[in-house]
Specification:
By secondary structure, the chain is an alpha+beta fold. The protein has one domain: Invasion associated locus B (IalB) protein (Immunoglobulin-like, Sandwich), CATH 2.60.40. Helices cover 18% and strands 38% of the residues. An 11-stranded antiparallel beta sheet has the order 1-2-3-5-6-9-8-7-10-11-4, with helices on both faces. A hairpin with a 2-residue loop joins strand 2 and strand 3. The longest helix has 13 residues.
Length: 184
């Protein structure tokens, strides 16, 4: 339910409103104030949750997951999350976004490893994403076929994190996200 914390393992950590909505739009659409759009939790597939929210631009659908393992030399950070979003704009309109829970070092790159396939994401603030839509497509295809995704990034303080995400349920969640955006 919107406003309630959602987590696949029964923990209350990921909140599908406010900050997550704003984070999804970074680099693609203008930030949406938390009051303007309330995310709606739809369903869980494996380790991935499906959400939608509607605003005056249309319906945005996204899937999100938290790491199953976190490592690094940081002292504290906000909860990290990996997301794939479909925005209400002309294609290409699907984007992978990684939030590490801290601001990335300026001009740094984030290393993503999906079962041995390597990807190099650009950073902006606390978001990391692919440089081009074809690269997003390649990463999504790897995630569909993969079992785990490891994400390594560096903060503005020079600390690093290595987060491991389960890709269990990713393909079904991705399909459900696309279907949810077709409805309307």
């Amino acid at each position: 339910m919107a406003g309630e914390d959602v987590d696949l393992r029964g923990r209350t950590r990921m909140r599908p409103t406010g900050r997550l909505v704003i984070l999804l739009t970074l680099g693609t659409l203008a930030a949406v104030p938390a009051a303007a759009a309330e995310a709606e939790f739809l369903e869980t597939f494996g380790d991935w949750n499906v959400f939608t929210f509607d605003d005056d631009k249309g319906r945005t659908c996204y899937i999100a997951s938290e790491p199953v393992k976190m490592d690094g030399n940081y002292s504290r950070r906000d909860p990290p999350v990996a997301m794939v979003a479909k925005f209400p704009i002309d294609p290409p309109n699907v984007q992978v976004v990684i939030q590490a829970g801290y601001r990335y070092k300026k001009d740094s790159r984030v290393e993503v490893d999906v079962d041995g396939r390597k990807f190099d994401l650009m950073t902006h603030g606390d978001s990391a994403y692919e440089d081009t839509p074809p690269e997003d497509e390649k990463l999504i295809e790897a995630m569909k076929k993969g079992r785990t995704m490891k994400v390594k990034g560096t903060s503005t303080k020079g600390t690093w994190s290595l987060d491991t995400y389960s890709l269990r349920g990713f393909t079904r969640a991705y399909r459900a996200m696309l279907k949810a955006c077709r409805k309307r």
